[in-house]
Amino acid sequence: MKKLIIANWKMHYGPLKAGAWVRAFRRERLPKDLDVAVAAPFVSLAAVRASLGRASIPALAAQDAFWANEGAFTGEIAPVMLSEFSCAYCLVGHSERRINLGETDEMVAKKAAVLQKAGISPVICVGETETQRRKGEQDKIVRAQLTAAVAGLKGDGRAVPVVAYEPVWAIGTGRPCTPQHAKDMHGNLRGVLKKKFGAAADHVRIVYGGSVDLRNIGEFLTTTGIDGALVGGASLDPRNFALLCRAAIPA
Ligand code: PEP
User: Fold this and answer.
1) pLDDT per 10-residue tile (average), the chain, 251 residues
2) What's the pTM value of the predicted model, to 2 decimals?
3) SS3 category, 66
4) Which of 112, 230, 239, 242 satisfies CB 3.0 to 4.6 Å to 122 for a cystine?
């Protein structure tokens, strides 16, 4: 399976800066054997698309979507609207949304299912909080989050989901988990996927997120069971992010 690195810009970069980021990133040398995507704010998706021209790297990703394709849902964005932009991926259940906006496992599951039907691979974010980890509940928590999120998904090879394991305590703190911790948790999550999808689970990438940077990406991506990374802070500078992609897959 090709490794996948997704930049999560979070609430950074309106259309002007987003376009400049893409143009700068496109000037950098990138490893051939790597999938790269950029999760941009909704209003910047068009600028990213325009700056890409005919290039397909980085692929376009959204940071969220609603669980219906049309209707009286003021302010929401439908998965079919994102597929008109040729979004390949869309994050769902990022911990910042679970914590700040009260997103539940049920909402995440509904979003993931409608996205997949619209042809967009949902990137399902799961992860335990510091408190849950201190209580030793992390395995149970992330297994429950993923089991709920994949309930309505199909394993027919279309819009294959991605799982992002992101321990909440490691996001934006400069304190990543150890590659061994991620490896153990990815094994745990792989078990959930196998139960749901059988052999098709082998095509689902499980990426790690949480303070990934230029110095630690190599170690994460050479660890068995880690199929890529979701990168927040270290993706904001296009040159730094390109260097990170190169460090992920050394020539
Ligand atoms: C994220 O936003 O998903 C993330 C992992 O952020 P950071 O890389 O900044 O920890």
Assistant:
1) 97 98 95 96 96 89 98 98 95 97 97 98 97 96 98 96 98 95 97 97 97 97 96 98 93 68
2) 0.97
3) coil
4) 112
